[in-house]
Amino acid sequence: MIIKSFVYGFAVFLSYYVGQNLGILNYYWVVIACSSILQAKSMSHAFKRHQNYVLGTIVGCIISYAILSINFSPIAISILLVIFNSLIYWKINTNFLVGNFFTTPMAILISKLSNPLLNNEAIPERFAAILIGTSIGILSVYVLNYLQKKCM
To answer: Residue 47 gets which letter from DSSP?
Structure first.
């Protein structure tokens, strides 16, 4: 339990440090992606979560690009946020991949509401943040599995 806590704590710290020092617009996306992978029950589950998160983010980036191409009012964006949030809660527990289709547009639209000048530049940053965070997470799960096998 101590090893697990140390590895997970280090992974979250590392994801925060890397995200902030790379100057990612919303560096906490890196931390959230890493933490999502750390919730996996096994190495194979972590790898599957990693794949689903990255594929879901790719689809979410495409959806985000389509939405940002249309100049929605803040009220329309708020309605879209409610719809995406509902879709996430409806699908994330039964299908992690499909649930993640909607997390990226939701995250980008929240950023758009807080910074109206934001356009498509958030999309590649979101993808990079997810890729970095999930990679740190899967590497951490691998290290934890290795350390647990060595200690047993």
So the answer is: H
The burial class, CB within 10 Å (0-12 / 13-18 / 19+), for 91 is middle
**In 33-103, at which residue ranges do the beta strands (DSSP E only) sit?**
none
Cα separation, 104 vs 130, whole angstroms: 9
145 vs 5: CA distance, rounded Å: 13
How far apart are alpha carbons 138 and 127 in whole angstroms? 16
Q: Are 13 and 115 in contact (CB under 8 A)?
A: no
In tens, the pLDDT along 7-51 reads 899 999 999 999 999 988 889 999 999 999 998 888 898 999 999
Return d(Cα 20, Cα 28) in angstroms, integer.
Answer: 8
Residue 144, both tokens: 């934890």
Q: What is the value of pTM for the model shown? A: 0.87
